[in-house]
Amino acid sequence: MINYDLRKIRAVVFDVDGVLSCSTVLMNADGEPVRTLNIKDGYAIQLAVKMGLRLAIMTGGRNEEIRKRYNYLGVEDVYLSCAVKVTVWEEFLHKYGLTDEEVIYVGDDIPDYQIMQRAGCPCCPKDAASEIRGISAYVSSYEGGKGCARDIIEQVLKAQGKWLSDAKAFGW
């Protein structure tokens, strides 16, 4: 269980590679990455959006397919090519009037470190880098791309009384 007052969480921000997708990325014939995505993570993401939780993606990845996938699930804020994520973090917080304490950030590797030091509730998958596990308030029992996002979102929505709370939960 996440040791944090999840009732005050207004947003969850995810990295992609190693968090929403497995750590291993296949390459197509053109050298473009081909990511795997977990369908249960997808369900939880779209439900969280429907239930009013603000979600965002911050990734160093450049593929527009990432934006398409998460826009399809209802995520409006998809930031690609994030070289220094803390700059984008500041913009995101300002855009929605959020404080660090109201946001969970889910990362898995060194590019996520600065933001995770700022986030009210830093979380990571169980296969995250040791430095990231060391600063996380919660280490999921799931690996990145294998249910980590679902685990975290489900805990937040349950704490807020929004998990399976109405008919929105029973469809896409």
UniProtKB/TrEMBL annotation:
Coiled coil: none
Listed cofactors: Mg(2+)
GO biological process: lipopolysaccharide biosynthetic process
Gene3D superfamilies the record matches: HAD superfamily/HAD-like
EC number in record: 3.1.3.45
SUPFAM superfamilies: HAD-like (SSF56784)
Keywords, ordered alphabetically: Hydrolase, Lipopolysaccharide biosynthesis, Magnesium, Metal-binding
Molecular function via GO: 3-deoxy-manno-octulosonate-8-phosphatase activity; metal ion binding; N-acylneuraminate cytidylyltransferase activity
Catalytic activity: 3-deoxy-alpha-D-manno-2-octulosonate-8-phosphate + H2O = 3-deoxy-alpha-D-manno-oct-2-ulosonate + phosphate
Binding-site residues for Mg(2+), renumbered to this chain: 15, 108
Binding site for substrate: 17
UniProt cross-references to NCBIfam families, sorted A to Z: KdsC-phosphatas
Self-association and partners: Homotetramer.
PANTHER family on file: HAD SUPERFAMILY MEMBERS CMAS AND KDSC (PTHR21485), N-ACYLNEURAMINATE CYTIDYLYLTRANSFERASE-RELATED (PTHR21485:SF6)
Record-stated family: Belongs to the KdsC family.
Protein name: 3-deoxy-D-manno-octulosonate 8-phosphate phosphatase KdsC
Species this chain originates from: Prevotella lacticifex
